[in-house]
Amino acid sequence: MKIATYNVNGVNGRLPVLLRWLKESAPDIACLQELKAPQEKFPLQAIEDLGYQAIWHGQKSWNGVAILSKVGEPVEVRRALPGDPEDLHSRYIEANINDLRIGCLYLPNGNPAPGPKFDYKLAWFKRLTAHAKKLLAEDIPVILAGDYNVIPTEMDVYKPESWTKDALFFPESREAYAKLVKQGWTDALRKMHPEEKIYTFWDYFRNAWGRNAGLRIDHFLLSNHFDKKLLAADVDRQVRGWEKTSDHAPVWIEIKHAVKK
Question: Which family does it belong to (predicted)?
């Protein structure tokens, strides 16, 4: 089974790119972030025409997450991260699909930092960590995929010294990610590429794509049920080079998992 995550940076404005990628890469399940569309403006028909069922949590102009599946209906479990009923940002959605629990997330950026936005980022991270611990306690196969807006280590950025004042690379952000992983999660992309400089995001500015001046901020965290079932993990880098594309590239994993018909 192939599962992907992709920050589309505007699902309607970049719909041709999304549809082309879905056709070419053909993931069984896809998690999308930064829809930047209200609930009623999600392009469901175009998605269904490619054989996918979908659930989504939209928000006008900002945020927005979705889970697409062509291996069974995504049965929604929740569409908000627990812990703060006043947080109305559409940043998390969770579903059961084919005996898997899939959590799709768009973690706050946190800039400018320090400040209220960074405080919100750390608070959101704390809520995610608490929820992730409960998911592990359920002892079910869980995948947490999405744009974490965290550069975990110096290996995950083209020029670490250029990012020391950015919330994505602040020690507190990296420590929060490390604490989450240490609960018992596997960082799938790093496990399959332990020594490789591998990126998932290239800024639109300063010819970052052309210089391969990238970051790794889109991650797959897997519960221990996949310790012997993770077959591959990689980045569809070529998508970042397409016309009118997102500044992120899709990330995908392949797992050994029987598809129920």
Answer: Belongs to the DNA repair enzymes AP/ExoA family.
